[in-house]
Amino acid sequence: MKPTFQPQLVNDPFGDPALYVEFLFQKRALLFDLGDIHALSPRKLLRLTHIFVSHAHMDHFYGFDYLLRVCLGRAITLRLYGPAGFIDRVEHRLGGYTWNLVENYADELIFIVHEWEGGATMARARFRCRRTFAREDLSAVPVENRTLAAEPGLKVRAAVLDHKIPCLAFCLEETEHVNIWKNRLEELGVPTGPWLQELKRAVLAGKPDDLIITAYWRDGTIPRKRRFTLGELKRKILRIVPGLRIGYVVDCRYDPQNLRNLQAILSGVDRLYIEAPFSHEEAEMAREKYHLTAWQAGDIARRVGAKRLVPFHFSARHQQNPELLYRQAAEGFGRPLSS
Ligand SMILES: [Zn+2]
Ligand SMILES: [Zn+2]
C-alpha cells in the first residue's frame, strides 16, 4: 500500500536542514526543522500543522520569521515542538517585533509551543496574535513512550541527543494498514459490517489476541452474531501492512549514549535522513564540534537497521566534492545509498 505521506528535503545537502512531509490526498504537511525555508512557497507553508525543531541553532531555526510573515493574519494554529529552552527561544523571536495593531485582526494566528527535555511530561505555552503574542503558559502534557504528537494514522517520537546542547532526533511513524481479505471473509460465511471497524480499531490499539470480537449482522429481519478471537481473525481475514517510518537526525556527536537513544526510536526505520557534515579524515573536528562524520552517519544507519539512508547537512568545506561524503556514508552503511 502506498504510504500516506511523502517526505522531501527542502534544500540541497549544503543548504539549511529542513524536511517537508506532505500528506497524500490532504492539503496538509509537517516540517522537521526550520532553517532557510524560502524554497517552500507560501501555499506549501500554509499546509503546515506541526513543526518539529531539533534545536535552535540558527541554521535550524532561522526560517521562523518567514513562516510567521506568511501565516500572520490568517486563522491558523501551528504546533511547534523543540528541546529544552525552546519556548523561551520562540518567545524571544516573537518579542523582536512591534505588535500594536494586531488586536483586531479577524483571523488569528496561534502558536502552541511544546518543549521536551526527555521526561514523562512536556511543557507548553501559547502565543496568540490578538494578545500580541504574549506568552501564556499552559499545563504540561504527558509524554508516553517518547511520543510527542499522535493522531489517527501517525505519530512522531523523539530522542534527546547530545550536541553540547540538547538536540532532538525524530521518527515519523505511519500507523500500520489493516486490510481485510474480502474473499476470505466470504469463506468464513460472515458479511461485512460496522463490526469490521471495531476489529480494525482493536488491531491498531494493539489489543491482545484473546480479545473476543463479535460479528453481528442481519439475515433478512433476523439478527445474527458470531464470536471470534482477535487472533483468529488476524490469521484468517486480515492483512496487516506496517506503516512507513521516517527518521530525522541532525547535529549530534558519535557516542554510545546518542546511539542508544537513536536505537530507541529508529530501529528498522524505512528511510533515515541523517547529518553527514564531515569526512572521515575530519573525525577529530567533528567530535570537537559535536557533529557526525559521513562514515559515522552511515554506521549509525547500519546499526539501527535503516533500510535506506539519505545523508545531508554537509559542511560547505566539501562543496567541491560532495561525492566523498556520499561515498564514506555508504562505506559506514555497508551498502550503496540506493535511491
Ligand atoms: Zn547545531
Ligand atoms: Zn546544524
Report on the architecture of this protein.
The chain is of the alpha/beta class and 339 residues long. The chain folds into 3 domains: 1-175 and 243-251, Metallo-beta-lactamase, Chain A (4-Layer Sandwich); 177-241, no CATH class; 258-339, no CATH class. It is 26% helix and 33% strand. Strands 1-2-3-4-5-6-7-8 form an 8-stranded mixed sheet, with helices on one face. Strand 9 (147-151) and strand 10 form a beta hairpin. Helix 10 runs parallel beside helix 11 (322-333). It is globular. The mean pLDDT is 94. Bound molecules: zinc ion (ZN) (2 copies). The site of one zinc ion (ZN) has 4 residues, from loops. Residues 57, 59-60, 250-251, 313 line the site of one zinc ion. It is an enzyme of class 3 (hydrolase). Its EC number is 3.1.26.11. Keywords: Hydrolase.
Our count of domains comes out at 3
Q: What compounds are bound to the protein?
A: zinc ion
Task: Specify the CATH homologous superfamily of the largest domain.
Answer: Ribonuclease Z/Hydroxyacylglutathione hydrolase-like
CATH fold node name of the largest domain: Metallo-beta-lactamase, Chain A
Q: Strand percentage, roughly? A: 25-35%
Radius of gyration: 23 Å
Largest sheet: 8 strands, mixed
Q: DSSP helix count? A: 11
Q: N-to-C terminal Cα separation, in Å?
A: 19 Å
Mean pLDDT over the full residue set? 94
Please mark out the parts with pLDDT under 50 across 5 or more consecutive residues, or reply none: none
SSE pattern:
EEEHEHHEHEEEEEEEHHEEHEEHEHHEH
Shape: globular
Question: Which class of secondary structure composition applies to the elements?
Answer: alpha/beta
Helix content: 25-40%
Output the CATH class name of the largest domain.
Alpha Beta
Count of individual beta strands:
18
Largest sheet, spatial ordering of strands = 1-2-3-4-5-6-7-8
Keywords: Hydrolase
GO molecular function, one term: 3'-tRNA processing endoribonuclease activity
EC number: 3.1.26.11
Enzyme class: hydrolase
